[in-house]
Amino acid sequence: MTYLGEFEQLVLLAILQCDEAPGGAYTVPIGRLISEKTGRDVARGALHTSLERLEAKGLVSSKLGEPLAVRGGRSRRYFTVTREGVAALQNARAAVVNLSAGLERLLDRKR
Asked: pLDDT confidence of 71, banded at 50, 70, 90?
């Protein structure tokens, strides 16, 4: 089973959402969505590092788009979550749900 850190989970979830939106999933909308939904500042370097790590793990794949005039002829790299990435997200979510079982009771005891 592949372990996912919290930020990796956020990146995968953002890719899934951005992939469905017009424009696709590339670094700018991925970072923007994470920031909007979590209130966290997303450093571009941290996002690039996480995307590279997720691709090395086989949890995302990427492809270069067509060169864009607005980017000086550079291409955007678009990301897609692989089946393995979806499975890793499902496993991570199941682990949190399992560990959270009975949490309210435990927290009530601590109050």
From this structure: low
